[in-house]
Structures are given as structure tokens and as C-alpha cells.
Design a protein that fits this description.
Distance between the termini of chain B: 48 Å
Chains: A alpha/beta, B mainly alpha, C mainly alpha
Largest sheet of chain C: none
CATH class of chain B: Mainly Alpha
Number of strands of chain B: 0
Strand content of chain C: under 5%
Number of domains of chain C: 1
Distance between the termini of chain C: 26 Å
CATH superfamily of chain B: MetI-like
CATH architecture of chain C: Orthogonal Bundle
Helix content of chain C: over 70%
Oligomer: heterotrimer
Number of domains of chain B: 1
Helix content of chain B: over 70%
Radius of gyration of chain B: 20 Å
Structural class of chain B: mainly alpha
Shape of chain B: globular
Strand content of chain B: under 5%
Chain lengths: ~290, ~240, ~325
């Protein structure tokens, strides 16, 4: 008991020092093993005791999860994950980020490679069969990006006549969705491993459109407004959630509480404004948490 | 295991597409490789340097990099590889003559990359011809071209068959990368599509894909083994 | 090769030399002009030579230069780590597999005389079965694309509840393929040795295992060293497939840099040059070793064992390329 108290005092002192050093940055407040109390045997307790967490995110999604030149991922997904991690009583620098491209997300959650996934991860019924979702914390929608001077493509129906070529990413939901509209996959659909390549193909004129969630496209448009624009309105609803192990209801509820708190105390909006908000996308009102 | 039956058309389609690009790339690589090999032994130094440089570059680059330059470098040079839209071939090679250039880009990358190895295989065949043969031909007064055509190449061809075959086998395996560079629906991408987007179990899909590749590579390998054994006996 | 080419045509006389010189100049001019119009001009028109795109890679005063190269350095380190681990593991697995296959082959020839008939049949059947199993393994893993093997390892192991870092998936995937290839290199090296070696070993009373271990294997290693080194080039190139399973090797890091800076062609050129430099030096090393070895054999005064040239060439060729 005594040792614990000494440790706590030392930790507090270290914290005070750290806070002083950071000039009032209180991000490290209330971290450390046992800094928060969680129900025994819960995921939260395990993570808090271990004082480290593995977060799956994208490394190539501007505004949401993109690995910068510093080697750290940045974006809205990353900020949301940080909010959760902070509430777990784990300092930010103890987060280990794991790249989780679209096609591996269920796998890495199911087999325990990561503790949670925040990676532009649409909540979907068939995914719920393998994992569970907290959230949503944002609602995106699939859209189409075309060249600035293109007037022929107005929406997904423009691909039905079999001439326009469209690009997306292998194994992603938008790629599956657009297949419903495309007449001939062999001559109309191009799939790459990143959206960067799709953007380059659009710029080079090899394809006529890029399709994925509007926020991702807005990121590219913000960087190159002279070349690209969105064609029409969103044609799907993509509520982004945080993926956790299937049936870990306690952890899911915990994350939902964190999100709801973030919605009201302004940290949600701040996370957005610092990241994807810079691209001019609308944040809108907080989505309703889906406590299924 | 049902996925193998339910989605047989997907596997078959992937197999067919992979086979198409492999046949085309094999033809292209054999031709280009032969040209490069001739460059490498030509009497004109700049051409020799060109041939050597070519082999050194393409042998030492990962195919991924070559693929990238074909898919994104060529458009930057203002080309959609339209010279490959040969009329008459699209009845069989349906992807060759479409507006989407990525099949052609992937084909170019495979040809460029494989040609370097074809060149080396041909060279190893030429090396296997005893020097006395070429000397004798020269003492008969044959020119460089005649020497190659009538004496060296017919003999080197025999020694080149096996290494050439293994180059082609490697190329078939290398073609698994085209799915990452814009070609939709080849055999390796089928795995991705069925497991991640289609939600099928991994193991049966893996077995299906493996069978697809092994159908192409194993018989070819067995054939080469036979040729090699027969040549060893003949020697 | 140099001997061979000079054999193909006469030493050029003055006229021939003049023709060669003229055609050399013409060829050079055509190459340069072609490169200018077909490559330089279109790229320049698209602004691909602008310092905005190249600066972070080549200009030390650029604010991103140190960051970019720190990332590329990390990528190179990861590439080399994966390649080193994979080649070491492949050598071990390859040697064991080669030994196993040679032993099994000699076992299948044994009649197990002097044993009770059922036991002899059983042993013979078992050795035949094992031999067939290893053969099938070799054929399967040699016949599958490395991409697929790596992908299968990364997807398959977690399926059975076994998880590692991505580094190990890559290393295992590369080892499975290259181990088999190296086993085949060594096996054909041992089988290509003159029969007298094994006979002499048997004559002095060595067991088959001792013969393989002390007589055949060391010689096979020596003969096949160049082929083994060129296999290292293959492994190094194949690590670039790590991007499929999100391993942060050089190309994957390059992709991340491109995502931030938007200069794909420039980054790929730099990475391509790095790969060529490393692999070219390795190939040169292989040639040097080969030369040293052939010299060593001559100076030792032993009658040079004429290796079937085509067989050797086919070995180094059949293994000298992967992805």
C-alpha cells in the first residue's frame, strides 16, 4: 500500500513536471496504471494496467489517418482514438499505431492484433457478424470526384451506359458499391491499393472518376482545387464507427460514453477542426450513438 | 469449400485473365529479350552499353517499381500505350483493346522486366556453345551475322530452353502483382475480392487460387525437368 | 562472355573500325535525341523536374529533406532486416530440406534386407511416402507466386490464432519460397558432383549421412555460392512485397511520403536507384566470388572438373529471378 502511494506521489510529481514543461498541456492528466478504476476483468482494466494500447488506423487517408513525414499518423480518426485512449488513462505516447487497410480491418480485430480500429470504418450489418462497433462518431457518404471541367458525370448512374471509367481501392466498400452501377467491370473499373494512385490516374486521364467517401475526396480537392470537384450528392450513408472485439459490450459502451462526452464538451469539434475540417467538409451535428 | 463451386466462374475468369497476360508477356519478353541479347553482343559499343545497362537496371529493380513506372510513368510521358491496341487480337485478349490502359501497362512492365532475364538466359545458352564452334565458323569466312545465325544460335537454343522455361515460370508467378496496379479480376486479386469484400472463408479461397497458379507452373516445371534430364543424358 | 564475343567476329580492320565509330556516334546521337524528345520533354512540360517535387529528396536545405531521408533510412533498415532474416532462415531451411530429400532418396532405394518382411515393407512404404510429401511441398511452394505465399502466411496464421509482427509474416513468407529454392540449388549441386566423390566416401566407410554432410554438401555450397548470392538479390527485391501486408519497408515508406508530398515519380526514381545500387553491388560480389572460386580451383592443381555448363547456367538462371 505504502509503495503504491509513493509511486502515486512520484507519478503526480512527474506529471506536474511534464505539465510545467509542456506549458499547461494537460493531455497527460490522469494517466498511469490504476489511475482510473474500471470493472474487474474488463478490457478497459486490462489496457489501463498494461499502460499500452494498439490502435488500428489508416496510414494513407489525408484528414483521417495519414502517416506524416514525422512518422506519426495524423487525422480525425487518430484524434478520436486519442480521446478514447486518454479516458483509458493511457498516455498518448504509449499508443502503438498499426496500419489497417480496408481489407484487413475485421481480421486484425478478430485475431487480437489491435485493441480497437478507427479507420474510416463504416458500420455495417455484415461486419457486425465478426466484430462490434462503437459510435458512430461521424457520418460520411460515398461520392464521386471528377475533373473540374467534367459535366458528363452527375452521379453513380452515369456509369450505367458502360463508357465512363471509375477508380477505387481494392477490397473497400465503395468499390463494392460502385459495382452495382458499373455495366462492365472489365472495361470500366480500376482498383489500386491507395486512393493516391486513383487521384493520379484521374489527373492523367486514364479514368474519368474516383469514388469513395466524400470526406476523403474533399481532402484531395482541397489540395488541388483547380483540377477536381465532386459530381453530385452523396449516394450512400457511411457512419464511421470504432471497431472492437465482437460482443465486448462493456468496452463498446465505454467508448460510446467517451464519444458522447466528446460531442458535448467540444473536444469532438476541436478534433475535427484540427484535421479533416481543414478541407472544408461539414461536420454537422453529432450523430446519434447506436447502442445496439 | 462451397466457394470453389459457387464462385467457380470468378476463379475461372481470374485464371483466364492471368493466362492471357502471361501468354502475351511471354511472347513480348522473348522478342525483346532476344533483341537485348543481340545488343549485348553487338560490335557497336553504345549498343552494347545500352544492352548491358538495360539488363542491369531491370534485373535489379523490384517488379513493383517497374510496374509503378509503367502505370504512372507512361501517362506522365503522355502515353496510354495505345500502340498495343492491335486489331484482331481482342477476340482472344479482350482487355488489350479497351479504353482502360492498365492491362497494357501491366503487360509492358512484365515484358520489360522479364526481357532482362530472357536476355541472360539466351546469353547463358550462347556461352554453353564451345568457343571452337564459332572459331571454326569464322575460319570458314562466315560473317558475324552468319556465324550467329547458322552456327551459334541453333546450338545455343538447345542449352537455352531450360533457363528460358524457368524465366517464363517466374514470369507467370510475377504476374500476380498486376492486381495491385489497376488490372481488375486476375487470379491473385480474386483472393482479395472473395475474402475481404465477399466475406468468404480464407482457406478454401487460398486453395482455389493456389490450384490456379499450380496448373500453370507445375506442368511447365515438370516438362523442363524432363528436357533437362534428356539433355544431361545426351551429353 | 568477352572471349565468346571476340570469337564471333574478326578483330576489326581500319575500315571496319571506321564503320564502327560512325555507327557508334549515330547510335549515341539517336539514343540521346530519342531520350530528349520522348522522355525529357514530356516530363519537363508536366513540370516533373520542378524543385517543388524534387526538393525534399535532393535539396539538403529543404525543410522536409531531413525528415524524408530519415523515413527512407528507416525503410532501408527494415528492408535489409527482413532480407537478412529471410536469407538466413532460407539457408537453414534450404540446407535441411536438401539433406532430407537426398537422404529420403537414398532410403527409397534401400531394400531393407535382413529385416522381417512386414517391417521392411513398412519402412520402404514410409520412406516412399515421405519422399513424395517433400516433393509435393517443394513443387507447391516453388510454383506459387511469392506475393501469394506472403499473403497466405499473413492471412492464414491468424486464422489459426497465431499472430506475429508483420516483419515475421514477411520473413516466413519469403523463407517458405526461398528455402525451397535454395534446397533445390543445393540438391542439384550435390547431384551434379561427380559420382566418384560419393563412391570414394563409401569406400572409406562413411555412412550416407556422413557422406552428404562431409563430402557432398561443402562442395555443393562452394559450387553454388554465386547462385546463392544471386538468390539474395531476389530476396532483397522480394521484400518490397511487404507493402501488401503493411510492413514498413522502403517502398511502403515511399508510398507514405508520396501521400504527403504528392511526388510519386520522384520518390520512385530515388527508391529505384537505391535498389539498383544495392543489388548491383551484390551481383558484382557474386561475380567476384565466382572468379575467386574458379581461380582457386586452378591454382590448387586439381584437374578442373568440367561442370556441365548448361546445367550450371540453368541453375543460376532458374533461381536468379523471383519477383
Amino acid at each position: 500500500m505504502r509503495v503504491k502511494r509513493v509511486a502515486a506521489v512520484a507519478a503526480a510529481a512527474a506529471l506536474a513536471l511534464a505539465m510545467a514543461a509542456c506549458g499547461g498541456n494537460n493531455a497527460e492528466e490522469g494517466t498511469g496504471a490504476g489511475s482510473k478504476s474500471f470493472p474487474a476483468g474488463s478490457t478497459m482494466e486490462r489496457l489501463n494496467k498494461a499502460q499500452k494500447i494498439k490502435v488500428g488506423t489508416k496510414f494513407d487517408q489525408p484528414g483521417f489517418g495519414q502517416k506524416g513525414l514525422s512518422g506519426k499518423p495524423e487525422g480525425f480518426d487518430v484524434e478520436i482514438a486519442k480521446l478514447v485512449v486518454k479516458e483509458l488513462g493511457i498516455p498518448e505516447d504509449k499508443i502503438e499505431y498499426v496500419e489497417t487497410p480496408s481489407k484487413v480491418r475485421e481480421d486484425v480485430i478478430a485475431n487480437g492484433t489491435v485493441d480497437l480500429v478507427a479507420a474510416t470504418y463504416t458500420i455495417k450489418a455484415e461486419r457486425k457478424e465478426r466484430i462490434s462497433f462503437a459510435g458512430p462518431y461521424y457520418e460520411a457518404g460515398q461520392n464521386i470526384m471528377v475533373k473540374k471541367d467534367d459535366t458528363a458525370i452527375t452521379g453513380p448512374d452515369s456509369f450505367k451506359d458502360g463508357t465512363k471509367k471509375v477508380c477505387s481501392v481494392t477490397g473497400s466498400t465503395p468499390a463494392e458499391e460502385i459495382k452495382k452501377y458499373v455495366k462492365d467491370v472489365a472495361t470500366q473499373l480500376v482498383l489500386f491499393d491507395t486512393y493516391d494512385k486513383c487521384r493520379d490516374a484521374l489527373k492523367g486521364g486514364q479514368v474519368d472518376a474516383v469514388t469513395t467517401d466524400n470526406v476523403i475526396l474533399l481532402g484531395y480537392i482541397a489540395k488541388d482545387e483547380a483540377s477536381f470537384k465532386l459530381a453530385g450528392a452523396n449516394f450512400t450513408k457511411e457512419p464511421y464507427g470504432i471497431g472492437v472485439k465482437k460482443d465486448d459490450t462493456a468496452f463498446r459502451n465505454f467508448i460510446n460514453d467517451v464519444l458522447e462526452k466528446a460531442f458535448t464538451d467540444g473536444s469532438w469539434k476541436k478534433a475535427w477542426d484540427d484535421t479533416a475540417g481543414k478541407f472544408g467538409a461539414e461536420l454537422g451535428t453529432p450523430p446519434t450513438i447506436d447502442r445496439y | 469449400m462451397n466457394v470453389l463451386i459457387d464462385k467457380f466462374d470468378v476463379f475461372a475468369g481470374g485464371f483466364w485473365l492471368t493466362l492471357q497476360i502471361c501468354v502475351l508477356a511471354a511472347i513480348g519478353a522473348l522478342i525483346l529479350g532476344a533483341v537485348v541479347a543481340v545488343l549485348r553482343i553487338s560490335p557497336v559499343p553504345p549498343l552494347r552499353a545500352l544492352g548491358t545497362g538495360y539488363v542491369n537496371i531491370f534485373r535489379n529493380l523490384p517488379l513493383t517499381v517497374v510496374m509503378f513506372f509503367a502505370a504512372f510513368g507512361l501517362p506522365a510521358l503522355g502515353s496510354n500505350a495505345d500502340f498495343l491496341r492491335l486489331p484482331g487480337l481482342d477476340a482472344i485478349f479482350s482487355r488489350l483493346d479497351t479504353d482502360l490502359p492498365y492491362f497494357r501497362f501491366a503487360l509492358i512492365a512484365l515484358v520489360l522486366y522479364t526481357a532482362a532475364f530472357v536476355c541472360e538466359a539466351l546469353r547463358s545458352g550462347v556461352n554453353a556453345v564451345p568457343a571452337g564452334q564459332a572459331e571454326a565458323a569464322r575460319s570458314l569466312g562466315l560473317t558475324f551475322g552468319q556465324n550467329l545465325r547458322y552456327v551459334v544460335l541453333p546450338q545455343s537454343w538447345k542449352a537455352s530452353v531450360v533457363p528460358l522455361g524457368s524465366v517464363i515460370i517466374a514470369m507467370i508467378k510475377n504476374s500476380a502483382l498486376i492486381g495491385f496496379f489497376g488490372v481488375v479480376g486476375d487470379l491473385s486479386q480474386t483472393a482479395d475480392q472473395l475474402t475481404s469484400a465477399g466475406g468468404y472463408a480464407f482457406v478454401p479461397v487460398a486453395i482455389g487460387i493456389s490450384i490456379g497458379y499450380l496448373i500453370m507452373t507445375v506442368p511447365l516445371g515438370a516438362l523442363l525437368d524432363r528436357i533437362e534430364k534428356r539433355q544431361a543424358v545426351a551429353r | 562472355m568477352s572471349q565468346q564475343t571476340t570469337v564471333l567476329y574478326d578483330v576489326p580492320g581500319p575500315r571496319q573500325r571506321r564503320i564502327t565509330l560512325i555507327s557508334s556516334i549515330v547510335a549515341t546521337v539517336v539514343l540521346i535525341v530519342g531520350a530528349y524528345f520522348l522522355i525529357y520533354r514530356p516530363l519537363d512540360e508536366k513540370g516533373q523536374f520542378s524543385m517543388e517535387l524534387w526538393g525534399p529528396l535532393v535539396d539538403p536545405s529543404n525543410e522536409n529533406f531531413p525528415l524524408v531521408w530519415e523515413r527512407i533510412g528507416l525503410g532501408l533498415k527494415n528492408t535489409l532486416t527482413a532480407a537478412a532474416l529471410a536469407i538466413a532462415a532460407s539457408l537453414v531451411i534450404g540446407t535441411l530440406l536438401a539433406l532430407l530429400r537426398i537422404q529420403l532418396k537414398s532410403l527409397t532405394r534401400r531394400r531393407f534386407t535382413g529385416m522381417a518382411a512386414p517391417a521392411a515393407y513398412l519402412l520402404r512404404g514410409l520412406s516412399l511416402l515421405l519422399s513424395a510429401v517433400t516433393r509435393v511441398c517443394v513443387e507447391v511452394f516453388r510454383g506459387l507466386p511469392v506475393v501469394i505465399t506472403i499473403f497466405f502466411v499473413a492471412r492464414g496464421f491468424p486464422e489459426f490464432g497465431i499472430t506475429f509482427d508483420t516483419l515475421w509474416y514477411l520473413v516466413i513468407g519469403l523463407t517458405v519460397y526461398n528455402g525451397v529454392v535454395i534446397a533445390e540449388i543445393l540438391r542439384s549441386g550435390m547431384e551434379g558432383l561427380p559420382g566418384g566423390q560419393a563412391e570414394a566416401a563409401a569406400a572409406i566407410g562413411l555412412s550416407p549421412l556422413q557422406t552428404t554432410r562431409m563430402i557432398l554438401l561443402p562442395q555443393a555450397f562452394r559450387i553454388m555460392l554465386p547462385a546463392l548470392i544471386s538468390q539474395l538479390v531476389v530476396v532483397l527485391k522480394d521484400t518490397s512485397l511487404g507493402f501488401i501486408i503493411s510492413y514498413e519497408e522502403t517502398l511502403n515508406i515511399g508510398k507514405q511520403i508520396i501521400g504527403v508530398l504528392g511526388n510519386p515519380i520522384q520518390v520512385y526514381v530515388v527508391i529505384g536507384v537505391l535498389f539498383i545500387l544495392v543489388n548491383y553491388s551484390l551481383s558484382k560480389l557474386a561475380q567476384y566470388v565466382q572468379r575467386r572460386l574458379s581461380q582457386g580451383r586452378k591454382t590448387a592443381g586439381t584437374p578442373a572438373q568440367p561442370l556441365p555448363p548448361a546445367a550450371l547456367a540453368s541453375q543460376s538462371e532458374s533461381t536468379g529471378h523471383g519477383v
